[in-house]
Write a structure and sequence with these properties.
The protein is an alpha/beta fold and 329 residues long. It is 19% helix and 26% strand. The strands form 4 sheets. A 6-stranded antiparallel beta sheet has the order 4-3-8-1-2-5, with helices on one face. The chain has a 5-stranded parallel beta sheet with strand order 11-10-9-12-15, with helices on both faces. Strands 6-7 form a two-stranded antiparallel sheet. The chain binds flavin-adenine dinucleotide. Flavin-adenine dinucleotide binds next to strand 4, strand 5 and helix 1.
């Protein structure tokens, strides 16, 4: 290791012990059929810039029941064939339910799905994302073909209450954090959360804030839970400038830094592909040089030129430590 490497002499204290996680219990060649148990918009009103639905699926009496933990995903195989006459490929959706499911018996798996809508630049025809629109069109009682669970790293540690958490989400990236926070609430079993949890949530418009009422309710219920929103395309009375989630990290750093200095704290990032670069750049600017290696190990070659970092430098030149968890799509 180079002597100029600031992390060389700093032991990584607080590395989490991760659980052994089962995955691929239901494989794509033998999927199960679940039934939609509930479906509702989880953006605020019709003014939201996108449509996101909270969808609960009953998987009781199937091999998927009781198999997942929060943070994992499940697979959906949309019906029908592609334009090439073959079956659609499976799409993954993050589980938004706690580990024992929405009703506590491992039978109801949940996600939140954003309708993918796009326009073909040449033909100016509307392109509807196959699986997201199929799922959002489903009604209660409709059948849906599922696989999973998938993912073994983006989960809570084995002893979750040994740690504090900074959760950073954009859009539907909130899904795993809803489940994880519900697990932490359940594990705490007291009037407050035993772990400190700060949730940073970035969306384009205020009306796109997902699960907003639940999250606001938790801020009132749990002293150890804080919720920090970042609206990127307009200002609000509470937020006089437009902000991405990493700008919120800057503005609220005075509130978050005691957590980030604490060796108990883990950082989880989930949402739009590319968001991790801005978050990593911001952490590199905010954290003192002796503190940064607890989360990120930066190649000395690029350490002084943070503003010119590019996503392709992850993970070779910008390496996350075992205290950082990333799921972007
Ligand atoms: P697709 O049909 O796959 O379309 C995708 C893109 O291709 C669109 O941008 C569309 O414009 C373009 N396209 C479509 N048809 C054409 C065409 N004929 N010609 C040219 N271009 C076309 N999503 C969520 O909403 N919630 C989640 O919780 C979630 N969790 C995820 C977790 C993981 C680990 C991963 C990997 C992904 C997750 N996703 C989640 C994303 C999800 O898996 C899908 O990618 C997403 O829903 C889009 O799928 P789709 O079938 O609707 O779109």
């Amino acid at each position: 290791m180079s002597t100029s490497d600031p992390s060389a002499s700093i032991p990584l204290i607080g590395e989490p012990v991760m659980p052994v996680v089962d995955q691929h219990i239901v494989k794509p060649d033998q999927p199960i059929v679940g039934k939609v148990h509930a479906t509702r918009l989880c953006t605020d009103s019709r003014k939201a810039s996108g449509f996101v639905r909270h969808i609960e699926i009953d998987v009781s009496n199937t091999p998927l029941a009781g198999t997942w933990i929060s943070g994992q995903s499940f697979g959906v195989i949309p019906p029908g064939l592609t334009e090439h006459g073959v079956s659609h490929k499976l799409r993954l959706y993050s589980i938004a339910a706690p580990s024992d499911g929405e009703t506590g018996d491992g039978n109801i798996i949940t996600t939140c799905v954003k309708r993918v809508l796009d326009e073909d630049w040449d033909s100016h025809k509307l392109l509807n994302g196959v699986c997201s629109n199929y799922m959002c069109d489903l009604n209660v009682g409709d059948e849906i073909t599922l696989t999973g669970p998938v993912g073994k790293r983006f989960v809570l540690p084995k002893n979750p209450l040994d740690h504090d958490y900074v959760f950073i989400a954009t859009g539907t990236g909130i899904a795993p954090f809803r489940g994880m926070i519900m697990d932490l609430i359940q594990a705490s079993g007291t009037h407050d959360l035993s772990s400190k949890v700060a949730l940073l949530m970035g969306v384009p418009y205020e009306t796109d804030l997902l699960y907003h009422d639940t999250l606001l309710h938790w801020t009132k219920q749990f002293e150890n839970f804080t919720y920090h929103t970042a609206i990127s395309r307009h200002t609000t009375p509470d937020q006089p400038k437009k902000m991405y989630v990493q700008d919120r990290l800057v503005d609220d750093f005075h509130l978050l830094s005691p957590m980030l200095i604490n060796k108990r704290t883990l950082i989880y990032i989930c949402g739009m592909a590319g968001m991790e670069l801005g978050v990593f750049q911001t952490l590199a600017k905010l954290l003192p040089p002796d503190q940064l290696p607890q989360f990120l190990k930066i190649d000395p070659e690029i350490a002084s030129d943070i503003d010119h970092w590019e996503r392709k430098m992850i993970p070779k030149k910008i390496k996350k430590s075992k205290r950082v968890f990333l799921e972007v799509y």
